[in-house]
Design brief:
Length: 148
């Protein structure tokens, strides 16, 4: 049995487009990322044509797809303006969500598309570093690209 190729946790990362179109950068400070894909479905009861009294099976039609990203970590002074501007914008922003290092030419993927920063939370506790958590949600199709 061959061992699988696995990813180091720090290679899961959100990158936001910079002021230079087509250039993406990872805001500093996030230590944890969670990427979630979800599919919204519509239940459709399909009766048996020969015997409509039989229990019917439920089929599901896909209505929509969604992607969300949650990140948390240390509040880096260098990233406050980036996160604030992304949150404060009424428009979605261009983002890439990486699994695998962007500069690793042998392994990895990223999803790219428009996203809204729907949450930007800062917490502080005496004696500790300030913390940040952010939530991004897709705004339309997210396309996947293999990093090769």
């Amino acid at each position: 049995m061959a061992k699988p190729t696995s990813y180091v946790g720090s290679t899961v990362a959100a990158q936001l487009e910079t002021s230079t179109p087509g250039t993406f950068a990872r805001p500093c400070g996030l230590n944890n990322h969670t990427v979630q894909f979800s599919k919204n479905t519509q239940d459709i009861v399909v009766p048996d044509c020969d015997d409509p009294e039989l229990p019917a099976w439920i089929e599901r039609g896909v209505e929509s797809l969604d992607m969300s990203v949650n990140g948390s970590g240390v509040l880096a002074a260098e990233a406050v303006t980036t996160w604030w501007e992304a949150f404060n914008s009424g428009d979605s922003i261009n983002a890439r969500i990486y699994i695998g290092k962007p500069d690793d030419t042998t392994n990895g993927h990223y999803w790219e598309g428009k996203m809204h920063v729907t949450a930007f939370e800062i917490t502080g506790e005496r004696g500790n570093k300030a913390q940040v958590s952010v939530t991004l949600v897709s705004d339309g199709e997210m396309t996947i690209t293999a990093v090769t």
